Task: structure prediction
Amino acid sequence: MASIEPAPVSTRSRSRRAVGSPPTWVIRAVLALVSVLALGVGLSATAQGHAQLLRSTPADGSVVESAPTSVVLEFNEDINPAFAQVIVRNHAGATVPTDAPRVEGPKVITALPALSPGSVVVLYRVTSKDAHPISGKVTFTIDGAPGFAAPAPSGSDSTPGAGSSDQQAASGLPGESSMAGPAGPPAPWLYMVTGVAAAALMTLGAIVLRRERLAQRRPVGVPVPSVSPEPGT
Result:
């Protein structure tokens, strides 16, 4: 009597079952791009989240015709009144006596005494209400003084003519660094990474969809019974 045995499933049929799986290198590439994109977005958000000086009155680097009665620093976040420090220096580098600054939301206002013509340097150190510190300086010039000292560059580490007492007065202000500008747009590389990651995800989706459609169209191999003749027949 002939026995019926199922024929083994061919390797080709087995491979069709896994045809919907995307290549491993594609998955790894997309994961790497997504990781880089997430890192870039995180760094950008962190950089843009810190408090920054938007503008000042008088403006940094400006020349005014008369001595201002106050200097106003406006930031992009509300400032904590308990952590607002301002030091003013005249053209000789001496510290000008001033009252404690007044804080009105994102503005820090410091009343000024009568200042003689020449350059004026305003050092500041403030902390926003969400604990982001910022320090720097603003320099402007009062017109009318022949031979007055030129304003110190914003990025200088010291102010010419400042005495030891002035250095001690400013020791609590790490604001000798350059004045921070307004928050700018995200860096161009961030747009590039975003575009590449989006293109990679779209490509992966297209590959997977195409493979799944091919898998549905091709019949999966089914074992076909085979008849083995009995010995002697």
User: Anything to note?
Assistant: The longest strand covers residues 79-89. Confidence is low (pLDDT under 50) at residues 13-20, 146-172, 174-185.
